[in-house]
Amino acid sequence: MEDQKEKIVDSEWRDKLSDDQYYILREKGTERPWTGKYNNYKSRGNYYCAGCKKPLFDSSHKFDSGSGWPSFFQCLPNSVNEIRDVTHGMVRTEVVCSNCGGHLGHVFPDGPNPTGLRYCINSISIIHDDDML
Questions:
Q1: Residue 94: how many CB atoms within 10 A of its CB?
Q2: Which residues, other chains included, contact 71 with Cβ-Cβ below 8 Å and sequence gap of 6+?
Q3: Angstrom distance (rounded) from CA 123 to CA 83
Q4: Which parts of the chain sit beneath pLDDT 70?
Q5: For residues 112 and 98, what is the distance between their CA atoms, to the nearest angstrom?
Q6: Reduced to 3 states, what is the DSSP secondary structure of residue 106?
Q7: Dist. CA 130–CA 83, nearest whole Å
Q8: Per DSSP, which regions of the chain are E strands?
Q9: Peptide bond between residue 114 and the one before it cis (omega within 30 degrees of 0)
């Protein structure tokens, strides 16, 4: 499914995803901080979209932001789209999978060098190489 624009109807997403994945990826939910599997995950490799398996992040770009969510200072080329988000009385930048449009989290301009960015990502929206079996 990677690198092909996902054209899946809502009922197919509901069948394909767990309830938690559906809430995050399709309804733009947010998991509670410090609860996600990948927040403190140290294994090397890539992280993929839990909806369509598109490669999104490399573990060498992951850092401990102290936010309670997995954080990366860089995404893989052409892996995400950024969308202005004005919900909840804030102005933020939403990050979605460039293939299936699944909500991943948000990007903030308070990350480390070399980019100065912090991609704050819901664990439930991604899958690591170790879990792709």
A1: 18
A2: 62, 63, 64, 65, 111, 118, 119, 120, 121
A3: 20
A4: 1-6, 133
A5: 24
A6: strand
A7: 29
A8: 46-49, 55-58, 62-63, 71-72, 80-85, 92-97, 103-108, 118-121, 126-128
A9: yes
Q: Which fold has domain 10-131?
A: 2.170.150
| 49 counts as catalytic | no
What is the pTM assigned to this prediction? 0.91
Kindly name the residue from 75, 97, 100, 120 that is annotated as catalytic.
Answer: 120
Phi, psi dihedrals of residue 8, rounded to the nearest 5°: -115, 135
Collect all residues with Cβ–Cβ distance below 8 Å to 93 and sequence separation of at least 6: 82, 83, 84, 85, 106, 107, 108
Environment class of residue 8 by beta-carbon count within 10 Å: exposed (0-12), middle (13-18) or buried (19+)?
middle
Which residues are CB-neighbours of 35 under 8 A, at least 6 positions away?
68, 123
Chain segment 58-78, per-residue pLDDT in tens: 999 999 999 999 999 999 999
State residue 50 phi and psi, 5-degree precision.
-70, -20
Which pair of structure tokens corresponds to residue 54? 């598109």
